[in-house]
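User: Please run a holo structure prediction.
Assistant: Happy to. Please share the sequence and the ligand.
User: Here you go; the ligand is adenosine-5'-triphosphate.
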Amino acid sequence: MENTQTSDKAAGRDFIRRIIDEDVKENRHGGKVVTRFPPEPNGFLHIGHAKSICLNFGIAEEYKGQCHLRFDDTDPTKEDVKYENSIEQDVKWLGFDWGKNLFHASDYFEKMFEFAVGLIKKGKAYVCGLNEEEIREYRGTVTAPGRISPYASRPVSEHLDLFQRMKAGEFPDGKYVVRARIDMASSNMKMRDPLLYRIRHAHHYRTGGKWCIYPMYDYAHPISDAIEGITHSICTLEFENNRELYDWVLNQIDGHFPYLPHQYEFARLDLQYTVMSKRKLLQLVEKQIVSGWDDPRLPTIAGLRRRGCTPESIRKFCELVGIAKANSSVEMSQLEFCLRDDLNTKAPRVLAVLRPLKVVIDNYPEGQTESLEGSYWPHDIPKTGSRPIPFTREIYIEKDDFMENPPKDFFRLAPGREVRLRYAYCITCTHVDKDPVTGEILAVHCTYDPETKSGTAPAGRKVKGTIHWVSSESPTAEVRLYDRLLSDSHSDADFLSQINPNSLETLTDCRVEPSLQNAGHGDRFQFERQGYFFVDPVDSKPGKLVFNRIVTLKDSWAKKQTK
Ligand code: ATP
Ligand code: MG
C-alpha cells in the first residue's frame, strides 16, 4: 500500500488522476475528460485558486481534454466585471488557456429556470414563504430532524404561479424562496429542503435587470456542469456534504444529457502567516491596510505577480504541495524554496547596496575610474555574460558590513582588517570619520592593494571575507523589503489585529550598480547577498528605480563568513 502511494506520487498520480485513469480506461463519458475552473467574480484570485487552476487545467492538458473557465456569477450583489477581468488575466499569466471555453453560469439562467419549473411540476420543488429565521428553525439540528414547511403541501399550481410572479418581480427580496423537496429528516443537513432560488433585486453585471431571481450555488453548479459536458467536477473539501445534493439535482434532470458529471473533493491550500479568503482579502483592501489587491504582501496572484514571483515557481509550488484528501497548512518556506529554485537560473547577479556606508580609498587616485568586469552568472549556472562595473576612489558598502568594534569571528570590514571587494581589490580599513555630535560613522577610510585586482589573493595574507559594493557614482533606487503579512502562523477571526507591522520596509536611499540604470519592467535580478529582486511594474520609472524583494537568499555569504 505504502509503495503504491509513493510511486503514484512520484509519477504525479494523485487520487483524482487515478480515478480519471480508470474512467478513461473504462471509456466512461465517451473517453472524454472535461474539467472546469469555476471562480465567483467577487474578488481577485489567490494562490489557493492557483492550486485549483493547476489541477483543473493541468488535468485537461495531460489527458488531452478541455478545461473551461466558468464564472459563477449567481450573486449580483457581490460580483463585478473588474473581478472577471482580473481573473482572466491571472489564469493566463499562470500559463493556462481555456481557448473558446469561456462560460458564465448566467448563460444558463433560462435553462435553470425551466428545470426548476419542471421540478415544481414533479412535486420536487416548491415556493416557500417562511422567512430566513423560520427556515433555520424548521431545519432542525444535527441531532433533531427538521419539520416540513407548511408551504410544501400547497398545490403545485400555486407554486408555479408564485414562481412566475417571483420571476416577474412582484415580490421584494426575501419574501419567497424556491426549495427542493427532499428530506427534512436527512442526516445530511444540506438535504433538508435546500434553497434553489432567492429573490435579489439587484443589477447583474451581465444580465442587467433581466432577472430578479437568482439560483443558489448548489442548484446552478451541477446544471452548469451538465450543460457544459463536464466529466470531473473538482472542488474543495468543504463541499463534501454538498455532493449528495449535487447528485440529487443531476438525477432530476437526467435524460437531457449524454452523461452526467461527478464531483470530487480535494484539500484546499492553506498557507501560513497570511489570509486565504476573498472576504478577508477584501477587508484588507477596503480598509487600506494594504495598497490594493496587487499589494506584494498579499497571496493574491496579482500581488505575487507584482512582487516578482514567476508563474513557473507558483506552478511548481502547487505541484510540490500535491493533491490530498486531508486539509493541512503549508509553510511559506515551501513557496520560497520554489521561488529560489526557479530564479537561480533566471536572474542575473548584480551588485546593489541597500543601506549605504561611504568608503574612501585614500591611496586610489582621485578622479580615476577603472572598469572591472563582473560575470552575471556563477560557475554552476550554464549561462554566460558579463558587464562592466566602474571602480572609483569613493564607493558604498552595506552599513552592516562594517563594525568598529567587531567580535573575533567577524570577517568583514573593521579597523585594521582586510576584506575583498567583489570583482575588485582587497581593502584595509585605516580609520573612520565620525559625526562629532552623534558619534555616527560618516565614512570609512581604507587603502587598497593594487596587487589584488579581480580579487587575487594578497601575497602572504589570508582574506576571508568578500563583500559587495558599488561606486559612489551609482544610481539611487528605492527598495521594498517584504516580510510575512501576519505575525501569527494562522489567521483567526481577528486577523486584522495580527498584521505584522514590519511586513513592509521601504528603503529610499539604496545604490545600485550603473548597469541597472535602464532596468525595465519585467526584469528580475539577484542582488548578491540580498536576495532576488523585481522592478516594480507600477512605481518604477526611468529616473526613479523601484525594486521589490521577491525572496531572500537561502545562504547569505555574510552568515557563512561570520561562522
Ligand atoms: P475563498 O474561500 O478564498 O473566498 P472561494 O472558494 O469562495 O474562495 P471561488 O471563486 O468560489 O472562491 O473558487 C473557485 C474555485 O477555486 C473553487 O473550485 C474552489 O474550490 C477553488 N478554491 C478556492 N480556494 C481554494 C484554496 N484555498 N485551495 C484550493 N482551491 C481553492
Ligand atoms: Mg466560493
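Residues 555-563 have pLDDT under 50 and may be disordered.
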